[in-house]
Each structure stands twice: as C-alpha cells, then as structure tokens.
Amino acid sequence: MSETPATTSNPLLAAWQTPHQTPPFAEIQPEHFLPAFEQAFADHAAEVAAITHDPSVPDFDNTITALERSGKLLTKVSAVFYDLVSAHSNPAILEVDKEVSLRMARHWSPIMMNAVLFGRIALLHENRATLGLTAEQMRLLERTYTRFHRSGAGLTDDAKKRMAEINERLAQLGTSFSHHLLGDEQDWFLELGEHDRAGLSDSFVAAAKAAAEERGMAGKAIVTLSRSFAETFLKDSARRDLREKVYKAFVARGNNGNANDNNEVIVEILALREESAKLLGFPTFAAYRLEDSMAKTPEAVRGLLERVWKPARERALADRDQLQQLITQEGGNFQLAPWDWRYYAEKLRQAKANFDDGAIKPYLALDHMIEAAFDCATRLFGITFAERKDIPVWHPDVRVWEVRGPDGQHKALFYGDYFARPSKRSGAWMTSLRDQQKLDGAVAPLIINVCNFAKGADGEPSLLSPDDARTLFHEFGHGLHGMLSNVVYPSLSGTSVFTDFVELPSQLYEHWQERPEVLQKFARHYQTGEPLPEDLLQRFLAARKFNQGFATVEFVASALLDLEFHTQPASASRDVGAFEQAELKKIGMPDEIAMRHRPTQFGHIFTGDHYAAGYYSYMWSEVMDADAFGAFEEAGDIFDPATAKRLHDDIYSSGGSVDPEAAYVAFRGREPEADALLRRRGLLEEPAAA
Ligand SMILES: [Zn+2]
Prior knowledge:
disordered C terminus, single chain, 6% strand, globular, binds zinc ion, disordered N terminus, 5-stranded mixed sheet, mainly alpha
C-alpha cells in the first residue's frame, strides 16, 4: 500500500475533533509518540529561544507569561503518553519510554539552565515589588524564579554541564526502576487450587479468577502482587504456608537478583542526587529538596516523624503481644511472623470489635462508592456528574463523567480507571490529560483517577474493602483539586503545589467516606439493596482505629528510611540491604512488621524525585487534614455551607496560586494542631485492655 498523507498523519499532532477535544485514544499508536515528541521539543525550544532573545526590555508579559504560553504541544503529548505508560502500557510503549525519558532530560536541562533566560527572570524577580502584579502573578514570578534557580540556572558552565549529565542519567535510572518493578510484578503469580482457598471470601476467589482470565489462564484462580490482592490474601488466607509465599514475593519485588533487580539502580540514584545537591550548594539532597517545601528542613521532618513513631511503635508492640497470645490460645506452636500479622490482627479485630472486612464488603460495591464520592462533592461544592459514553478511552473499563459547576456550565471531564490489569503499574493515582487555566480563555480540565481494584468475575460487581473505599475517596480528593482549580496560569493549576501540601485535599476527602451520614446513604447491599445495618456500621467505625500501630509503623519506617537515604552520605548506602537493616535496627523496628515500601520497590522515591526525601508528605498533610476536618465537626455539619465555601475558595480551587501555609490559615483561621493526627489514629489513648 502506498503512503498517503492520511495514513502517515499523526493524531498527536492534529487538532482533536472529539467532544471536548479529548485524546482520540483509538487512533493513537505507540509509533506516533517519538515523532510527536520530536515536533513538540522543537516547537518548545523555538518558543523559549524567542523569549530568551526578545530584544525588548524584559517585562512580566514577554517573559513570564510567554513561558506559561510555551510548550503546549509538549504538555499535550506528554499527558497522553504518561497516562498510557502508567495505566495501560505494552512493550512498545515501554521501549519508547526509555527513549523519551532521556530526550526529556536533554530537552529540559538547557532550558532550565539557560543563563540569558534566567537573567530576564532574575531581573523581574528583583524588581517584583514595582511591577504592579496581581497576587497570583506575584506567586507565579516567585515560583518561576525559584524553579530556575533550583535547577542550576545560576551555576558555572562546568557545573551546568555536569548537572545536565546527572539529569539525563537520573531520568534513565528512574525509568529503569519503574520498569523493573512492573516486570517483577508481572512475572509473579500464585495459582490457587481448590484446596488453597481456606479463609478466602467468595469475592476474593472471583477476583482471583478474573485476574487469571486477564492473564490468559481462564478457569484458574491466581493471586498477583498488586497491593490490594496481596494484602487481602495475607489478611484472609488460613494457609500459613501460602501466606509466607505471597508475603515473601511481595516484599522481594525489585530485589530478586534477576534482570529486574533495583539495588544497583538505587545506589547510583543516591550518589547522583547527592552530587547534584552539592553542585547547588546544599550539604545533602534532603536539605536541597526540603528547602522548597512546607517543612523546610530535614530536622522539621524528623521531628514530626519521631513524634508519631514513639507512640505508634509502643502500640504496635502491645498489639504484637496480643497477637502472639491469640496464636498460643489457638494452640499454635510458632512465633508470630510478618506473614501472620494481618491474619491474626483481623482475627483479633473480629474478636474485639466483632467486625471483619468481609462483612462490610457486600455494602461497598464500587458503583455505590463512586456515587457516594460524587454526592459528597455535590453537597460540598455544588458540582454534578453525568456519565458520558461518547468520550474515547484507553481501555474499555475506563468510564467518563461530565462535571458541571453550580451554574450548570461544563467544568471538567472525569475519567475513572478502576480495575487492576497486567498493563497497569501498581498503586493508585490521580493525573490529568489537560489542566485547568484561563490565560487565553477558559480551559476545562480532563482529570483521571487510576486504581487497582479487583474486578468482579462473571458480571458480579466489584466489591471494595474499606481500604479500597478509602483509596477511592483519596484519589477523588486529588481529582477535585484538579477539577475545581480556578487559576489563570497553567503552571499554578490544581495539584501544582508543594508535595507536603498536595495530600491535604486527598486525605481530607477520606474523612467523608467514613462518616455515618454518608455510609448510611450509600453503603447498600449489592444484592438486596438494603442499607448497612446500624450495628455493623457502629462496629465498622469502632474497628477503624484498630491496628493503627501497625499501619503507622509501616508508614513511618518507610518515611524515616527515605529521609536517611537522602541525609546520610550516599557512600553509606552502597549496600542497600545492609543500610536498610541498620536503620531499622536503630529505630527499633518490630521484626514482625515490614516497611510499607522496601527500598527496591519504593517507586515514590526512586521512579522520579517527586517524593524523594518527601515520603513524609502524607503525614505532614495528615496533620492538616485531621485538623481541617475539625472545622466541619465544630460547625456541627459535615456539609456546612460556609465551611465548604472556605474550603473551596482557599484550598481546592486555589492550586499553587497562594502560599500553602497562608491558604491553610485562611481556611482554618489558625495553624494546624498535630494532636488531631494522633487522635484520629487512636494513638493518644491507652491501648485497649487485653
Ligand atoms: Zn495522594
């Protein structure tokens, strides 16, 4: 067949004729990306060169606003590409990813270290008080200056050259890390024969069958290493030998001495991060990273983590003794091992709170929880949701809703991609295909939530665990941060805020999910439609604080290790496993608990530097979210309109256009109080009597 313009045209370079100009996923093939990126890099480089060499005197419009207008194609192509890399990849896409991550670093380094461009920005920054800027413009100028400065724009030529090399190598390493992790997760499964299912719920077995079918093993049932699968199995399976297998495979991801091993990758990443921090004048990467955060210093982070660590560890140790007691009572002649914790904790919870997750799951059908998440947003912010079947998606399971504002006007599209599959990386996240802005007319955002819930088999609905339901609300909270965004400039849109602030809108939203007002209405039995019985509801709420010592310990240990990796000399962690062991020993980590993310699977901090020396952010934000929800409790109504309006105006719609500390104080009228976090986790009270 001869090549005609029609067959060679690249959908990524065309104007999209779809409703709301959404990406036409069916037309986009892996081979379209590299040429589209080449074009996008070239366009952007030309735009930046024009700004840099603009003969007119630098002003806000010809420099800062012009930068905001640049790179539209790159933003557009990147958004589609990274959505697919994370949520629906294949070998061809992953191959392109290797190339793109390198090209991306090569593209950005000369821009972010461009001395002439930085000269223009620095001049404006110096004269910022005299420019007559709006508050948002002032914030944008400060953020732009800081970003260039922190990227090394003020360094000597030699240092810049080295910095550029480091950036390239780090980009490659981050990509390798995530590909390795995905590889180890795709490779492993445990087949469950008829006799291997003791303790497992029907819905779990159904999901295990669906997972097998997804991998071309129809008729079988398998456990995979996706977190919700592995953790549910560890909690429910009565087969101690199989629990051990699943546990060991789960914590060994990236650490198997095979082609997917991440140890060497980590050593090199840490050394390069340290070198780049030193080039920029900081003693450690953590000092560099945290300067541009709410926490500001490693000491402040350590202070918060240690404050939480002590009571959490004590609680976990007390719980451990109770679990051991339970084993002994049952006639078990063994010591509690890490693969036993979740199983016996669940038994203890059933005994004490008379509650098990399995009892509530039939009331937490995915569709009902989506409805609940939407309804809370309607009651708080007046936005409404209507499903659209005409929007192109990247996988048939993806659903799309149109979001309208209180005025009935189109506000956003919301994409929900909820089910686990081999082409998706693990975890749950929010991202966007297009961000809100109104620099040149209003642009409505395209917001995505991706989760890894187990799909129901044979047309049965997907039933969520309480943790899954919480994850759904968490990611939807991030989604609202993107959908409600109301800023002028694209780089300040939605979730473009400090990492230790970005979890506030998400974690705060979780609070509504566990409120009786919400559960009574939406937690209906998926078969009978009956509402959650009052007694089960009360037991569920009481059980929420159960095992919080464990949950806090597994989180804080990961956060502390992240901090140590980035504050100690990189040479100290040349043997990653030994470093991990030594640090855990130092903090008195209970042997029976594993970190939530061991180093070789710690994608947060090694697939890119977004959460590097920043994993503490969840807890930093939790100090605020626990305290923030108190504003609604004090008002006596979890949908109190006046409080909701402040929440909308000061937090969910303001993106990065205001200083986060000021935003919080504007909403709450004061600084947050850390005790609210300990109270919410039940760590301020005495441990329950044995
Ligand atoms: Zn989050």
